[in-house]
Design goal:
Elements: H1 2-34, H2 44-61, H3 71-74, H4 77-96, H5 98-104, H6 117-141, H7 143-153, H8 168-184, H9 189-207, H10 225-231, H11 248-253, H12 281-290, H13 299-321
Helix pairs in contact: 1-2, 1-9, 2-9, 4-8, 4-9, 6-7, 6-8, 6-9, 7-12
Length: about 325
């Protein structure tokens, strides 16, 4: 088991970021672009399922915190499933809108379509990584954006399945800031599809409850402990390490941090003003309308927490009576 744990620690991130990305690239570049089989895009669905399955398995073998694997105890699986479905559906809709955007903005003279497709994907990812990082930074600086982004930060644990948690409106803003410039410059649909897959897997790896070992890349990739520091509920101490994948943007902006002021525990995730972050997907969608940054926890969530606690007490009494 110790050997397997080490294999997962060193092999998980490369398998996800390089192995599955290479598989997705082959599907799009060979089956779709080279052979003209547009239906082959559907093969990305099982590849994404493999990514989630790998994440769950790796988290069992080499977790940061074992209690983060208690899915029943956390009671958030239903909401997280809804987030995954909505996130991926909106990503698909974004790709489907590319022809319309190209029609509205016919300026197509910048994108290097004559370059090899792998280089186009690399450029797209680097540009998107920077754009998403800046949008992330602004979402921590301006209250209207933070109210939306708090839906992502309210979670009490990090694992692969909740990496894509976003308020749908915030995701739309992310897509406009991160992807719209690329599309306007002429990024082809196949490149956009691979980019979307890579971003989904990146978010999965970034939030995975896997004690990954990155070797010489430690400190250069915003994965694991570096991202845990970003999610701590220690007031503004989490305003660091905003990068989606690379840390170079944070280092340039002066927001990079690789050493927490104290040891991070499994109880340190979340938003300090939202100790009773709702578990319901619908309640999470409504959170930006009730939560006002700087004014403490909304009464709505205090009442929901009290109601839940009372229900649990009644259930314990009922089971004890049996």
């Amino acid at each position: 088991m110790k050997y397997l744990r080490e294999v997962v620690r060193y092999g998980y991130a490369p398998f996800m970021m390089l192995g599955l990305t290479a598989a997705a690239y082959w599907v799009v570049s060979d089956l779709v672009v080279a052979r003209g089989n547009n239906w082959a895009y559907l093969f990305l669905i099982p590849l994404l399922a493999v990514a989630y399955a790998t994440s769950f398995a790796a988290e069992k073998i080499a977790p940061f915190f074992a209690d983060w694997n208690d899915h029943q105890g956390h009671g958030d699986t239903g909401a997280n499933t809804a987030h995954v479905l909505i996130y991926e559906l909106q990503s698909i809709n974004g790709v489907l809108l590319i022809p319309l955007i190209c029609w509205l903005f016919p300026f197509q003279g910048v994108w290097p379509t004559h370059w090899p497709m792998w280089s186009q994907v690399l450029i797209a990812f680097l540009v998107a990584d920077f754009a998403f990082m800046m949008m992330h930074y602004l979402s921590h600086r301006y209250a209207p954006l933070w109210r939306l982004h708090a839906v992502h930060h309210g979670v009490g644990r990090l694992y692969g399945y909740n990496g894509v948690i976003r308020h749908p409106l915030h995701q739309i803003i992310d897509m406009i800031i991160g992807n719209m410039p690329l599309v306007i410059m002429g990024m082809p649909v196949p490149v956009a599809v691979v980019l979307g897959f890579v971003i989904s897997v990146t978010l999965m790896v970034q939030h995975s409850n896997v004690d990954s070992r990155l070797g010489p890349l430690q400190g250069h990739l915003s994965i694991g402990r570096l991202h845990h520091m970003h999610h701590v509920n220690w007031g503004t101490e989490g305003d660091c390490n905003f990068g989606l994948f690379l840390t170079i943007w944070d280092k340039m902006l002066g927001t990079f941090s690789d050493k927490p002021k104290r040891e991070i525990t499994s109880k340190d995730m979340g938003v300090d003003e939202l100790p009773n972050f709702p578990k319901s997907y619908v309640e999470q969608l409504m959170l930006p309308y009730f939560y006002e940054p700087g004014k403490g926890e909304p009464e709505r969530y205090k009442k929901l927490a009290a109601k839940t606690a009372a229900q649990e007490a009644r259930e314990q009494i009922f089971h004890a009576a049996e």
